[in-house]
Amino acid sequence: MQTIDIEKTQQAWTNLNQILFMPRTESEYEQLIIMLDSLIDEVGENENHPLASLMEILGILIENYEQENVPEL
Question: How many domains, the chain?
Fold first, then answer.
């Protein structure tokens, strides 16, 4: 089992936490949508692209926000 290097993780998270976060406001939700749109343009349907999993995670965060905050049509 691999252990987590907390120091390296903290350094990486400092760089990522501006684009990867739980949206709590509509503004944050919109930020994630903009980021996801950019990733879709870059990654497309290439599941082997280095950013494909980030695109998937952003999609999940957006979907969760919508389920909790956006009324169904």
Answer: 1
Domain that holds residue 41: 24-73
pLDDT, tens only, 18-42? 889 999 999 999 999 999 999 999 9
Phi and psi based region of residue 20 (left: phi greater than 0; alpha: psi -120 to 50; beta: remaining): beta
CA distances, 69 to each of 7, 10, 25, 37 (Å): 35, 30, 9, 20
- Confidence band, pLDDT 50/70/90 cuts, at residue 60: very high
Classify residue 40: in a domain, yes or no.
Answer: yes
pTM across the whole model:
0.84
